[in-house]
Amino acid sequence: MKLLQSLILSLVLALGVSPALAVQPDEMLADPALEQRARDISAGLRCLVCQNESIDESNASLARDLRLLVRERIMAGDDNDEVVEYVVARYGEFVLLQPSTGGWNWLLWATGPLGLLFALIIAARYLRGRSATPAKPDAGLSDDEQARLDEILKS
Amino acid sequence: MITELGHFTLILAFMVAIVQAVVPLIGAHKRLPGWMAVAEPAATTQFVLVAASFAALTYAFVVSDFSVQLVYLNSHSAKPMLYKVSGVWGNHEGSMLLWVFILALFGAMAAWFGGNLPPSLRARVLGVQAAVGVAFYAFILFTSNPFLRLDVVPMNGQDLNPLLQDPGLAFHPPFLYLGYVGLSICFSFAVAALLEGRVDAAWGRWVRPWTLISWVFLTIGIALGSWWAYYELGWGGFWFWDPVENASFMPWLFAAALLHSAIVVEKRESLKSWTILLAIMAFSFSLIGTFIVRSGVLTSVHAFATDPERGVFILGILVIFTGGALTLFAARASTMQAKGIFGIVSRESALVANNILLAVSSLVVFVGTMWPLVAEMAFDRKLSVGAPFFNMAFTPFMVILGLILPIGSMLSWKRGRAERVIKQLVPAFMLAVALAGLVWAMQTGRSMLGPVGVFLGAWLVSGATIDLLNKTGKKRNYARLLRLPRADWGKAVAHGGLGITMLGIAGLMAWDEERVLVAQIDEPFTVGQFEFILKGVETVRGPNYVSDMAEVAVLKNGTEFSRVFPEKRNYPVQQMPTTEAAIDYRFLRDIYVVIGDAQADGGYVMRVYIKPFANWIWAGCILMSLGGLLSLSDRRYRVAAGARKAAPIAGVPAE
């Protein structure tokens, strides 16, 4: 019930882009190294009620709760991966701004390399063809059109 | 009355567009000169009618006519005049009217400057352009009419979202739309060429200026949007990989690819079918972008007026035009014979590499943007694809692009000699490595991002310089630089600009510093090498907001060199607070100061950022657009445009 309340409240707060006053001084950990770890982790976790904002950037109250949770876990001695696992276990993989590679997600991650490979193969075949074929006789233009083309290209 | 006139002229424009889409296309098919000749006056008429309609809506906003529903919902009598005008396109209906206005503008320009086109090609281009117009007029009139009245006239309006009340954002949509919609002309040219069944060098030359101008507008539009995000959202982020940003970025990448491949068509008569395909894809991605923004399938910070009915309508437009064009392409592409032969090492191959990198990187952005939707529908997984993914998956393409760009741009056509070019580029490479090594030694962390960015920036800028100097001949006759074709200058400036933007992005991401704290009045604190003193906070009243304005002194080595005034505003009508960051813009870094809430035990929350090289990002964008404009002003396009005076002699006989 408390979650629902905070969800509604954050929804109200998060309508539109609100001015980012995300991390407040009172949330911050005293140890700068630990605080930096918390910031790094927070930057990769999505604020659930916002649109494409990390909890580090968002001023929604749910984001604040999550930031405090991350810091709590760090103080409890979790390492970065454990903190993230802890949050994912509670809120689902939706909170991960960087999607995992598991399941069909490999396809997402492979899009770039596979696309590049595919394009390179096609291009290589095309380029080899281009450098091998002899010039074809010009079939397309009539004399009239050729004269017009020349006139345009001359300029 | 004027509103009704605007409504009426919009309907008339719809009718004219239907005529313009039907008659010239039939005329071109049956070779009827009189029918083809309808296209030009129709395009002009359509433009005048939409312009009148747009003016009518603008008038309603300017005089704050709250009997018009759209004005009531998006304006307020106390709003400054600039934002009353920009409010016209700060909402769904008005922005669609701006969209068709620009569509008609480009159509009319193609009619006015298309005098040297073969009559049938011109008729087809204008016909296809009008067909796109018909779809969007129908969309506006049937699902998003901006001219609807209210029965009871309210006393005042509901105001525009305060975040949108900003000079940077006032002009961001028009530029973006000029780019998006400009690509429709390239699309029309591609479809017309497919209908004609012929693509030649002249076609490449006609398409290139339109691509260039669209790309320039897109560059300016995207840069304005990102600059706005930087100074307005309050923490200095400049790019979020938000679905809507991606929607504008994909057409930009495709337009960049298209304007390079059109060079190959123009100079070498190769890559023809690929260029046609790119032109179709570039505009299709503009439509996909519109679909993403308006349908709300991907929730995003920008999504205004999301509505399933509208989404389905735009999806229909997308399917008809993209599907139709691709079908036509499949049927006709084989008729396009490439002529030029070239070796593996040549400018042509380099431009193919450019196209591959731009197209595949765009594919990565597309798949990343749509993946949450795919995963939810196909695998029942609710997941997010955010900035970390895009930074990781997209950046390598830009790094490779930057690495090969200076070499590729100096290879000669047909058959180049790589070792000669590489020899010429040795100084640029050494300079880039030296600078990258220097910053690597100077920085505190071990991140490679900064040095790589510095390397690419220096490599691209010095590479472009060497390319220009090469053209002065063996004896280094520098006077020749001034006589070079403007396209050469455009190329160098745009490529240099890309390098500067890359350096800016890498520098900002690698070396920014941040501090969040509670600042007490007159108690100094340090961030990086600077010292800050909060002098005081007072309440200031603006035209339609109330502001808490802080005064902050910035010191270095004990001497004050700047005083900044960050604000926290509240807009009472929309009940919405905004932060106005104060930024001390400098050549090598910005100082970015934000004031937060007052604390119960005194003092204010403040966040201070040092943002190195921030300005370089937008300076590079300005250079890229300037390069595009220089290319556009090249003599060969001006002459081509002037040639239309001679055209009537050989051109269309009157009816």
Automatic annotation (TrEMBL), chain A:
<keyword id="KW-0732">Signal</keyword>
<feature type="domain" description="CcmH/CycL/Ccl2/NrfF N-terminal">
    <location>
        <begin position="11"/>
        <end position="153"/>
    </location>
</feature>
<keyword id="KW-0479">Metal-binding</keyword>
<keyword id="KW-0201">Cytochrome c-type biogenesis</keyword>
<feature type="signal peptide">
    <location>
        <begin position="1"/>
        <end position="22"/>
    </location>
</feature>
<feature type="transmembrane region" description="Helical">
    <location>
        <begin position="106"/>
        <end position="127"/>
    </location>
</feature>
<dbReference type="GO" id="GO:0046872">
    <property type="term" value="F:metal ion binding"/>
</dbReference>
<keyword id="KW-0472">Membrane</keyword>
<comment type="function">
    <text>Possible subunit of a heme lyase.</text>
</comment>
<dbReference type="GO" id="GO:0005886">
    <property type="term" value="C:plasma membrane"/>
</dbReference>
<dbReference type="Pfam" id="PF03918">
    <property type="entry name" value="CcmH"/>
</dbReference>
<keyword id="KW-0408">Iron</keyword>
<keyword id="KW-0349">Heme</keyword>
<dbReference type="GO" id="GO:0017004">
    <property type="term" value="P:cytochrome complex assembly"/>
</dbReference>
<keyword id="KW-0812">Transmembrane</keyword>
<comment type="similarity">
    <text>Belongs to the CcmH/CycL/Ccl2/NrfF family.</text>
</comment>
<protein>
    <recommendedName>
        <fullName>Cytochrome c-type biogenesis protein</fullName>
    </recommendedName>
</protein>
<dbReference type="InterPro" id="IPR038297">
    <property type="entry name" value="CcmH/CycL/NrfF/Ccl2_sf"/>
</dbReference>
<dbReference type="InterPro" id="IPR051263">
    <property type="entry name" value="C-type_cytochrome_biogenesis"/>
</dbReference>
<keyword id="KW-1133">Transmembrane helix</keyword>
<dbReference type="InterPro" id="IPR005616">
    <property type="entry name" value="CcmH/CycL/Ccl2/NrfF_N"/>
</dbReference>
UniProtKB/TrEMBL annotation, chain B:
<feature type="transmembrane region" description="Helical">
    <location>
        <begin position="613"/>
        <end position="632"/>
    </location>
</feature>
<dbReference type="InterPro" id="IPR002541">
    <property type="entry name" value="Cyt_c_assembly"/>
</dbReference>
<feature type="transmembrane region" description="Helical">
    <location>
        <begin position="96"/>
        <end position="114"/>
    </location>
</feature>
<dbReference type="InterPro" id="IPR032523">
    <property type="entry name" value="CcmF_C"/>
</dbReference>
<protein>
    <submittedName>
        <fullName>Cytochrome c-type biogenesis protein CcmF</fullName>
    </submittedName>
</protein>
<keyword id="KW-0472">Membrane</keyword>
<feature type="transmembrane region" description="Helical">
    <location>
        <begin position="207"/>
        <end position="229"/>
    </location>
</feature>
<feature type="transmembrane region" description="Helical">
    <location>
        <begin position="425"/>
        <end position="442"/>
    </location>
</feature>
<dbReference type="GO" id="GO:0020037">
    <property type="term" value="F:heme binding"/>
</dbReference>
<keyword id="KW-1133">Transmembrane helix</keyword>
<keyword id="KW-0997">Cell inner membrane</keyword>
<comment type="function">
    <text>Required for the biogenesis of c-type cytochromes. Possible subunit of a heme lyase.</text>
</comment>
<dbReference type="InterPro" id="IPR003567">
    <property type="entry name" value="Cyt_c_biogenesis"/>
</dbReference>
<keyword id="KW-1003">Cell membrane</keyword>
<dbReference type="Pfam" id="PF16327">
    <property type="entry name" value="CcmF_C"/>
</dbReference>
<keyword id="KW-0201">Cytochrome c-type biogenesis</keyword>
<feature type="transmembrane region" description="Helical">
    <location>
        <begin position="126"/>
        <end position="148"/>
    </location>
</feature>
<feature type="transmembrane region" description="Helical">
    <location>
        <begin position="448"/>
        <end position="469"/>
    </location>
</feature>
<dbReference type="GO" id="GO:0005886">
    <property type="term" value="C:plasma membrane"/>
</dbReference>
<dbReference type="GO" id="GO:0015232">
    <property type="term" value="F:heme transmembrane transporter activity"/>
</dbReference>
<keyword id="KW-0812">Transmembrane</keyword>
<feature type="transmembrane region" description="Helical">
    <location>
        <begin position="489"/>
        <end position="511"/>
    </location>
</feature>
